[in-house]
Design goal:
Helices cover about 0% and strands about 45% of the residues. β7 and β8 form a beta hairpin. The protein is mainly β and about 130 residues long. The N terminus and C terminus are likely disordered. The chain has a domain of about 80 residues: predicted glycosyltransferase like domains (Thrombin, subunit H), CATH 2.40.10. A six-stranded antiparallel barrel has the order 3-4-5-8-7-6. It is globular, with a radius of gyration of 14 Å.
């Protein structure tokens, strides 16, 4: 796969608006080579049914399941797309929630209207 090319699973229309949010998360799963991994990453934007992550340092397989740990939450997702960032060893990945948590990121549904959300690095509080 060429640098900067994107792999995609058939895309249906996105469910809900994206909210820009940089939140620290831990991701656990199996990479493209079959090796188990657990590493720190961050969200780029979120919605009630999915998330876009940045700072992923491993190539992931489409349709694989991964676990995201955020605060005291343990969330299950499926990889729906990956993109290698040009000139880096990092990937962005698009994940779709496998189970619907009512408020997976701790935001009320009113906050999913596209307003940027920032997190304090010191406290981790929105």
């Amino acid at each position: 796969m060429g640098e900067g090319m994107k792999q995609t699973v058939e895309r249906s229309k996105r469910q809900g608006n994206r909210t820009k949010a940089v939140l620290p998360v831990r991701i656990k799963g199996t990479d493209r080579t079959g090796n188990a991994f657990e590493e720190l990453a961050h969200t780029l934007d979120v919605n009630a049914s999915g998330v876009r992550l940045g700072a992923i340092r491993r190539e992931l397989n489409l349709m694989d399941e991964v676990t995201i740990f955020y605060r005291q939450r343990k969330l299950q997702f499926r990889v729906v797309w990956t993109k290698k960032l040009k000139g880096t060893s990092e990937f962005q990945v698009g994940l779709k929630a496998i189970s619907q948590d009512r408020e997976p990121w701790g935001f009320s549904s009113a906050e999913f209207r596209g307003e940027p959300v920032a997190v304090s690095r010191a406290s981790g509080v929105v």
